[in-house]
Specification:
Structural class: alpha+beta
CATH architecture of the largest domain: Orthogonal Bundle
Oligomer: single chain
CATH topology of the largest domain: Arc Repressor Mutant, subunit A
Strand content: 15-25%
Number of domains: 2
Number of strands: 8
Length: 236
């Protein structure tokens, strides 16, 4: 069944309906949603950096998305998703994270390599294919990096967690998710054993935003605050 859907999706011409968005629009909506998880209003500069485009290109695209009722731009603050924009962003996010699970669990790809491939698949997966993948994988709740997968209604269930930077020396925690999914960063974290489900102990925390020393699987490592901030955990 999965092979049939994949073949049909890749070979059958697909005409977008008036309610479907272009690939760039979907990328913007998904990226705004991701960034809004850590900041209320997403600044143009942050969006440009995340997408690897110029601020001018971001401004033009946001103007188009605003005309479609998908975002609200706030002077001197940034951009926010409208309720309609959030709904569409969650649909894209659902396809992306299910695609990541498909690539790792079924096709055997390394968890550090699936994000970029999923970024391409998320734009061609139909609702029927998305639901078929979810059924095949037996309704996974998170992507391979621990981030929650929205259900078919757009509901997203989050497990309580906080950045590793919030923990103090002698705190023990279990890793819940990695919020940045760049391949080089994921490879680095995996080499340290810092993956969802791992138990870590904070041993030291240098002052003035200095590095943290964490112990995982019997070994100690120094983590810069920028790295520790993208690792979310909960106390044990």
């Amino acid at each position: 069944m999965l092979v049939f859907y994949l073949t049909r999706a890749s070979m059958t011409p697909h005409t977008k309906s008036s309610t479907e968005r272009s690939e760039p629009a979907e990328m913007y909506l998904e990226t705004i949603y991701r960034l809004s998880e850590t900041e209320e209003a997403v600044r143009t500069s942050a969006l440009a950096n995340a997408l690897g485009v110029s601020p001018g290109a971001v401004t033009n695209t946001l103007a188009s998305l605003e005309r479609q009722g998908l975002v609200h731009r706030r002077a001197y603050k940034g951009v926010e998703l409208s309720p309609k924009g959030k709904t569409e962003a969650l649909r894209v996010l659902r396809r992306h994270r299910l695609a990541e699970q498909l690539l790792t669990k079924v096709l055997g790809m390394n968890w550090s390599e699936v994000h970029d491939v999923a970024c391409r698949l998320e734009h061609v997966m139909t609702r029927e294919l998305t639901d078929a993948v979810e059924k095949l994988l037996r309704n996974p709740k998170t992507c391979p990096h621990g981030n929650p997968i929205p259900d078919e209604t757009g509901h997203i269930r989050r497990e309580s967690s906080q950045p590793l930077t919030n923990f103090k020396p002698n705190d023990r925690a279990v890793l819940v998710k990695i919020t940045e999914e760049k391949s080089d960063m994921l490879r680095y974290l995996a080499s340290l054993g810092l993956m969802p489900g791992a138990v870590v102990e904070v041993q030291e925390k240098a002052p003035f935003e200095g590095p943290m020393i964490v112990k995982v699987m019997g070994a100690s490592y120094a983590l810069g605050r920028n790295v520790a901030s993208i690792v979310q955990a909960r106390r044990v």
